Fold each of these.
Amino acid sequence: MYREEQDSVGKLNIPKDAYYGVNAQRAFENFQITGQRLDPLFIESLVQVKKAVALANMELGELDPKIGETIVKVADEMLAGNLHDQMIVDPIQGGAGTSSNMNINEVIANRAIEMLGGEKGDYTVVSPNDHVNKGQSTNDVYPTSGKLTMLKLADILLASLNQLADTFEAKAKEFAGIKKMGRTQLSDAVLITVGEEFHAHSTLTKRNIKRLEAVKDEVRALNMGGTAIGTGISAHKDLPQTFNKHINDVTGLGLTVAEDLIDATQNIDCFAVVADVQKTIGLSLSKVANDIRLLSSGPRTGLGELYIPSRQNGSSIMPGKINPVIPEVLSQAAYLAAGNSYTVALAVEGGQLELNAFEPVAFHKIFESFRVLSNAILTFDENCVKGIEVNKERCRELLERSTYLTTDLAIHIGYKEASEITKESLRDDKTVIEVAREHGVSEEIISAITAD
């Protein structure tokens, strides 16, 4: 069973029971791109925007209270999880997000019509454009909803990062007294403790937390009320501030009105900053994951200083082989975020004049990076870092066989003679102390360089 709806392109049959309308149906047919639906938090954000605008328009006398209150009721239903299946458009779409905006407008309008006793598609009762979209444009609704979504997803990523930082800190304390060989450029350097290494991992993770907290401020300023190009045409002059009051009541996200609504409509450079921070978080933690893979390599022919949890078979042909699958997946998440950052950069540059039409792909990739990084960091923490143990015997063995003491020795006898002792130690497979004694280095100096 179908109902007929019409837009400026022509007539189209819509499933009779559908809450979406002709605009969403046409977009569904035009944009079969990713095979995915809009992010659930983006749908939530769209609904919150529509609710807050309805409240603002009623306060400003711009919307019939009967219609406005019904829109708010529908929004509350959707915020409770209903009708999300009626959001049918693909995340990547032409039209700068118009398809997403009209999809939510139609769903809210048709449910409101139903509540008021009408038939779906009878937009004389509640109009997707004249009522649900009152005082708005896709060009302020869509970026505003995207920013709300980023703030929510940032908090999910922050939770994963905070958990990982706490685990690294706990491991730093657990491994505080375990000495090992430090390495630079994959070559023996000087002594360090395993605890110091893990404390450095914690410091890095906390720095990423600060980066992410700071970048949230990039997306708190909204262009809502700027409508098509930031001039506010078709909106009440007080809508930006009135909306901002209501959207903060609805979300609690600490949002502000953009200083310049035209700038905030034209330019989306803030999204490049978000994507770059995502990339930095991913790549910096991938470096940690790679270090842990290297230090746990083996079990017989690698460095073997760390034990990481065994999570699954590593080979379909080599019995008993275990691979570092959890660190590997974190690195792959980082690579995804890095690639997505480049996509966002291209989208940011691609805008022309008063609008950037490429926000859909930017949002899709930023949302993806937030979710993938959050999940990868969480599995890295739960399934790897929390279960790491130290092979103390291996650390001691490698430390004793290293030439790290020659750095301290050089302070007492000079760089040139210490270098000769180092070369002889490696050539003859002797310890530095053994060769130092052979070179006549005093026991007083040897005691000084071997003291804890």
Amino acid sequence: MTTAPFARASGRCRPGKIASALLPAWLACACTATTGDLGRPRPTVWSQLLAPEAGFAAAAGRGEAASRFRLTDDEEQMRDRAWRFVMPASPNSVFQGEVSNLAHTRILPVAAQSTDVSDYFRGLTGIAFASQASRYNRMTEDANADRLLIGPFRANAMRVVSMDRVRMRTVQASPDIAPEKQDPALARVIENEGLIFWVCERLDFRIRSYRHALANLVVEMPSREAVRAERAIMALEAEAGPLCRMPLNDAFGEGAKRPVVYKG
């Protein structure tokens, strides 16, 4: 399932736009070698100044909701916490990591990300491990790390959704709000809700990728460690469910299809 969670209406991306947006990608590659909090790239001139401007222009050019409003502390933190989930889980996936990083800055559309569930399995088997158990342990650790970060993201998202509700009530009720602030306000609500949708889509993709990898590992290298990996994936799925069913502000309208986390 692939959607354009920031767009008011769905539409196809023109290849020319994607190609032109890839131009700064090589600069991004040079700037994301080291990591900071939550595994994100350390702050640089690119990530703090250039990428946000390029992302705003690219998103607006694709017809997606884009707001010039400054981010609240919770909105900024939610974007930081989302980074883990929208990046590829696959080990050694440098190119896809850069694509996802550019999608996170909105320079590229989210549809540019890989949707091949076999990526994780290829990455897991493409790395030298001491034993077969090490591969299962890596998968267990990845799934558990995802699970532990969902709760803080959900709490953060709930605060953002609550404040967006206040924001829109104020826009509708207060005569002191200038008309030119109404569209950016709605765009910010769409951005925030779209980010939650995107995280749920990528969580679903991660769960399906882990299950694909587990099934293929069991066929190639059966191990008792598969039980621990299966339990970790089940726990991740259980934790993701409440996040992806939490009440939102219906910024996309009643017809919007919400992401559904993997169910068998």
Amino acid sequence: MHVRIIQAHPDPGSFNGALSRAATQALSRDGHTVSLQDLYASGFDPVEKGAHYTNRQDKVAFVPLAEQRHAWQSGSVPADVLTEIAELERADLLVLQFPLWWHGPPAMLKGWFDRVFLSGGLYTSRVRYDAGYFRGRRALLSVTTGAPESAFGPGARGGDFATMLWPLHYSLHYLGFTVLPPFAACGVQGHGYSYEAEDTQKTRLRSVLAAWGAHVASAETLPALPFPGWQDWDAAGQPLRTEHAARG
């Protein structure tokens, strides 16, 4: 399979960068191909704005979704966005690699979603969820945190991963991806801030890199996270099956 990694960390020498390299090595050993987009290093502009569109439908008011639809229909999608879409269309698996900042992804990654997943192109009123544009492709989140694993869980002081990652997971499901269980590398702290001795942390993080490599290399066999599809809603969009409603 071909794997596309989107990395969202300002320092390529960070542990997030190490995780991307570990994934690339593990996947390449198994005969897969990998391409990496380092959003910070590439200078990707995450801010959706009128200046990106050379053939505006409305020269006065900027309505992002309307301009995205117009750009798709008129063949004037911004070049950097077209490149991202082409890479996604090549990929069998999408990996999002990022640190958890303020209980969510960095703004850079959110901006990548805002600009790349074009209204009227990569989703419409009917082309979404289990009938989405990327149907048949998989997506996987790899997240780092500063706090140790013991700090996370339902009601825990660090928050609940299922809750904090839900917006990204559901957005990927919205686009048609089969969403796989995430990988979390906890207790990743800079020099002088770790709750462990430096040697202990280095040893533990080496084992984390190995575990992540094994996790991403097994992506083709990982079970999908459960999400509702069109058959689970009534005409008003309300759930027909209570088990999906509870999971949502």
Amino acid sequence: MEKRMIKKIKRKDPKGLDYIINTYSSKVYFLVNKIIGFYGKEEVEECVSDVFYKVWESINEFDEKRGDFSKFIYMKTKYLALDYKRRLEKSKLHNNLEKDISNDISIEHIALDRESSEEIVKVINSFKEPDKTYFYLKYFMYYKIDDIATKYKTTRASVENRLYRCRLKIKEMLERRY
């Protein structure tokens, strides 16, 4: 049965993907949760989803002479979860830096100066999508980060990272000016 499903996956037949999700999802979820579970359920679910996508995309790397298909999936799971863990740790570091930056230069305080405001708007308008949209929604429309993430079907961490990079660009512009 498994060999038949592997062939289906290689032909990009969705039934093969359904089979591996139904067969391996609980073990994949368990492994991912062991590695990054303390970061939250949303991150675990996103990683599990990415594992199955990665297996789907890299199915041609599977060689049954080198081991079982389950080992192939579990190795993909392990390495992807470790990548997520590194990214999440980096994001945590960025959030701490963000607090430090906000203590140094308050965007709201500088925005009171009209010239600065015009320059800030130019910098914001130069942002690529979806950064510009996220920034406007957060700081001009007062959306919550979770609402932005839900609306654009992404993670909270992704929105936070993009907003952080936007604020850094504004800070750099302001530092050059002053």
